[in-house]
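Dear U.,

For the methods section draft, I wanted the exact inputs and outputs in one place so we can describe them consistently. I've listed the two proteins in the order they'll appear in the manuscript figures. Please don't edit the token lines directly; just add comments below if something needs changing.

First protein:
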Amino acid sequence: MKWVLPGVAVTVALVLAGCTPAQQRGFLPEGSTNATDHTQSITSLWVNSWIVLLGVGALVWGLVIWATISYRRRKGQTGLPVQLRYNMPIETFFTVVPVLLILAFFGFTAQTMEKIEARYDDPENVVEVIGKRWAWDFNYLSDDVHFQGVQVQTDENGSAIDETMPKLYLPVGVPTEIRIETRDVIHSFWIVEFLYKKDMIPGQTNYMSITPQETGVYMGKCAELCGEYHSMMLFEVHVVEQAEYDAYVAGLRAEGKTGAVGIEYNPLQSRFESDAAKAQNE
């Protein structure tokens, strides 16, 4: 083993050194490496988990293949091999190691989730996102303007028409709280390259706290089956410099899109209110 282990270590190092950028980020979406202040920790958790799991897989398959070859029936052998009721060292190993792996995965996952779920005490920018079948509304609460989207339309080739695509603008480098609401059924707000999604549940406000770190256009979509045109419930996130963001907000204000649109059109809201009133009376 003292000669085998160094050889295995060198082989693994050479294989990892030859990984492409896509492989190094675990085949996560391109552009997600430094998209926000959370993507690096999420990528690290994902990639390191796969490295450990691949190592476990290689060990298990290696032992299976070794046992198959070493203990195969050879020419001239008859009857059953010697049977063992148990082997305490092996059984202890295969019990303790999985438990330790599960505890480690749980610990690192909980640590990462605690970081990405923590809300800012005083975010510089607050945006409210409202999902609706099958489009999006964006309230820029810090600037008192709003955008109302329509369902994305497609051309004859099935490609989305850019003019109908809802666009969410965020300033780069600014701590931003995104408040997530739905106007009808359950949706899921997913910015693909941000490696982050949140369910939109009627009667409940969820939050995402992020700091975009790289300018660019990122793809967003609903990740919860919400009806006939779920596949067309798309949007884009434009992370831009502060000057461009201010110009966009000024454009919305010039168009008279001041204030915020609410969720009062929620067809389920009356049911929630009646349930609350009923519970209060009881």
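Second protein (the one for the lower panel):
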Amino acid sequence: MCFIFILSFNYFFIASQNKRTTSCYEKKWALFHPFAALKANKIYKRCLPFYEEVKKENTLDDFESGGKLDAFRHIFFMSAFAQKIKIRKIRKLGKAHEKGNYKHFLKNREEHGELPDSLSGVMDLFNNEVGFELGSENKKLNLKELKLLVVAELKKGCGLYFRRNAKKQYVNCSDEIILWENYLKKWFVPKCLIKTSM
């Protein structure tokens, strides 16, 4: 049993993907869900090449933070987890990750090249829920089929991402450019969440 607990701490997700330390909340999740953590680690490693494929091909966009690619990452990974792990367990993981993001914001640590913010958490949790539903409804799909399904659903507008202008700058819902100097050290940034079909 001790071996499982040690392995569960080594499990996956943000540390390897975002090149940052795993938050204490995620470690706590792994401690209380060691078998789910080991399973998630295995699934994560198998999913990563498919994510990299979508990223390289620029299938949706090239924004790992706040874009359709970000939405794809959350929906695809969570749908793959939901095929094999109970949703209540991976929902807790998603919430632990977002709690960790707030801590990283306070420490000025970036995720995918940007500081986390409150609306990014809202977006991620929404996209996680989409992933849970797709995964639980399509348990027999292999990862390639699941990837194609998630891309198709994103194009239909199942997910959320942030609006940007033609110059790739974040804008608010009135189409005004967000001036970052006005939001230094602020958790809330008035980005505009829109459906992935837009």
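Candidate sentences for the figure legend, describing the second protein: Residues 1-20 have pLDDT under 50 and may be disordered. The helical segments are 2-9, 13-18, 24-32, 34-57, 68-84, 87-106, 118-137, 143-156.

Thanks,
Y.
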